[in-house]
Design brief:
mainly alpha; F1FO ATP Synthase; 84% helix
Length: 96
């Protein structure tokens, strides 16, 4: 249930951020909604990664270094995708 919610939230953020690029006027509200959804998606993604990493470390404390390394890589990928989404929202805001 949580995964499908996160998927649809990310899909909505992408559609709202890229969709209004062809519109002549009125990009402001749509880009703002897209940016807000992007930030919410980033927060959910990072929260799920942290939750899973802490659960894994609690189960196997001797693997803490490997789990933290993988967590930082995945968190960086989530941040990168979120920054790309925010940049697309800003581009649609300023393109006329």
């Amino acid at each position: 249930m949580r995964q499908s919610f996160a998927f649809f939230l990310a899909l909505a953020a992408i559609l709202l951020s890229v969709g209004p690029a062809s519109a002549v006027d009125g990009n402001g509200p749509t880009a703002a909604i897209g940016m807000g959804l992007s930030v919410v998606g980033i927060g959910i993604g990072l929260g799920l990664v942290g939750f899973a990493a802490l659960g894994g470390i609690a189960r196997q404390p001797e693997q803490a270094g490997a789990i933290q390394g993988a967590m930082f890589i995945i968190a960086g990928l989530i941040e990168g995708a979120g920054i790309i989404s925010l940049v697309l929202c800003l581009v649609t805001l300023f393109i006329k």
